[in-house]
Design goal:
Elements (H helix, E strand, L loop, with lengths): L1 H25 L15 H34 L19 H29 L8 H5 L1 H4 L13 E8 L2 E6 L4 E4 L1 E5 L4 E7 L4 E5 L3 E6 L5 E5 L12 E6 L12 E7 L1 H12 L10 H13 L7 H15 L9 H12 L27 E2 L4 E2 L10 H13 L28 H10 L6 H12 L3
Parallel strand pairs: 1-5, 4-10
Antiparallel strand pairs: 1-2, 2-3, 5-8, 6-7, 9-10, 11-12
The structure holds heme C and copper (II) ion.
Length: 456
């Protein structure tokens, strides 16, 4: 009976062991989204190479030391007759063995040190001596010519870490975006790493990293998305993660990079440089507003920025009459200017807040809230409009006290809902609204979501 019990217990323990191992191994993937074992660029490849050299050297040491120990344990194990035998010869140190061990340790460390030093130099210096440098200079590849003064520079992006999202400033082009880094395939890109608050760490495992993002310190890294000469496998989305604990929502501070062709990159820059026009900018009222402005001073509305100013002013004026707000997007725009402009920017409009991400083209992003709410059609890299709309709605309607689980705990502690800089962020803004007698309703949140979705 006892024997059977033991056998059963043994089987259970065995089964648990196998299940645990299976669970642990399930986490191992060589090609997963955030695998360092699947590099798609020279920096990540060099870092992986260094990792393997260290692994092989350590494995070599492990096998030698382990085998000697196994042989010693086996050969010199205690035997029943041992007590009757005299003590064997007692040795005390062997210069040959000692010098040999010191020498081989040094040799193994040197084997690791040489590629380590090389990797440090290569990652901490822009690769001006590499063959891909000339083709990376903006003057040599940017379609339509590099912006003034930047033709001898590679693309530079200033990455600023915020609790808990990322701002990307393409200074050479005057474009600011958030949470989705867009880079051209096969070109060296320099990322200037800055922090607005605490220490973060920038890490795109398949491309490069990790480098700490420290307040008051000008760190940087370079990377290049270029796995092979055809570059066909290199396009698309790359995933990363803030890799330094930075507070409550640290685990939700994800990184996305989209690698595109140089032509797509130039198109993206053009789209993001253009100011955003208000909803209904092709309607008669807009045409009339432009005509009036032009009639006053025709030379004053030549540029798109001037056009946007005229149209947003006209929109704001019109939106004071509720009957003029015909579509849900119109109503959403009005609500946006009443509730969100302290913290968010929409290029070309009076919304110029910088507490939160720039929303000028937020609907073009694959996710919102630093990757937490994913807008993609499952299994593809295309935006699913229904899912995106739902995400915008959930994000603006979020409320930690909501009875609806879909609106709770989306990104705990996020500084849109609770922001000490603005006392309490959205919570206070909602409270003020309540006091003024216009609480945001569920319909308002849907209108806001529709407006956000129009920002392509
Ligand atoms: C108190 C400042 C504040 C106010 C007010 C505010 N936001 Fe935000 N917003 C933020 C911050 C901070 C984030 C980044 C949160 C994060 O991802 O951790 C954010 C993120 C967002 C995002 C996601 C952007 C992205 O690229 O991921 C959207 C969309 C958004 N806000 C819309 C709105 C709308 C609509 C309103 C008005 C109803 C609003 N916000 C009011 C601060 C604010
Ligand atoms: Cu962080």
């Amino acid at each position: 009976m006892r024997a059977r019990c033991n056998a059963t217990a043994g089987r259970i323990v065995g089964a648990i062991g196998v299940a645990t191992l299976a669970l642990v191994m399930a986490g191992c993937s060589f090609t997963g989204k955030q695998s360092t074992l699947d590099p798609k660029g020279p920096v990540a490849a060099q870092q992986l190479n260094l990792f393997y050299i260290t692994v092989w050297v350590s494995l070599f040491i492990f096998i030698i030391v382990g085998s000697i120990m196994a042989v010693a344990v086996w050969r010199f194990r205690e035997r029943p007759t041992d007590s009757t035998k005299p003590l064997p010869d007692q040795g005390h140190g062997n210069p040959l063995v000692e010098i040999g061990l010191i020498g081989s340790s040094i040799a193994l460390l040197v084997i690791i040190a040489i590629p380590t030093m090389k990797a440090i130099w290569d990652t901490m210096e822009l690769p001006t001596d590499k063959p891909f440098w000339p083709t990376s200079l903006l003057g040599n590849w940017y379609p339509g010519g590099a912006p003034q003064g930047s033709d001898k520079e590679p693309l530079e992006v200033t990455v600023t870490g915020y609790q808990w999202w990322w701002a990307y400033d393409y200074k050479q082009f005057g474009v600011v975006t958030a949470n989705e880094l867009i880079i051209p395939v096969g070109k060296v890109v320099k990322l200037n790493l800055r922090s607005k608050d605490v220490i973060h760490s920038y890490w795109l495992p398949k491309l490069a990293g990790k480098v700490d993002v420290i307040p008051g310190r000008a760190n940087w890294l370079w990377l290049m998305a270029d796995e092979d000469t055809t570059q066909s496998h290199t396009l698309g989305l790359y995933y990363g993660q803030c890799a330094e604990f930075c507070g409550e929502s640290h685990a939700y501070m994800l990184i996305r990079a989209r690698v595109v062709t140089p032509d797509e990159f130039a198109k993206w820059i053009d789209a993001n440089k253009a100011p955003v026009m208000p909803p209904g900018a092709d309607q008669p009222w807009a045409v009339a507003a432009l005509a009036t402005a032009g009639a006053k001073d025709p030379s004053s509305i030549i540029t798109p920025a001037q056009k946007a100013t005229v149209l947003w002013t006209a929109f704001t004026e019109r939106s004071k009459t509720p009957a003029n707000l015909i579509t849900s997007v119109d109503r959403g725009a009005k609500l946006f200017f009443a509730n969100c402009v302290l913290c968010h920017t929409i290029n070309g409009s009076t919304a110029q807040g910088t507490v939160g991400p720039n929303l000028s083209h937020v609907a073009a992003r694959a996710s919102i809230a630093a990757g937490v709410l994913d807008n993609l059609k499952i299994g593809t890299e295309e935006i699913d409009p229904a899912r995106q709309n739902e995400n915008f709605y959930r994000w603006v309607a979020q409320n930690p006290a909501s009875p609806d689980p879909k609106l709770r705990d989306i990104k705990p502690g996020n500084l849109m809902w609770y922001n000490p800089q603005l006392d309490q962020g959205l919570k206070v803004i909602r409270a003020l609204n309540l006091k003024a007698g216009h609480a945001l309703t569920d319909q308002d949140f849907h209108d806001l979501a529709n407006f956000l979705q129009s920002l392509k």
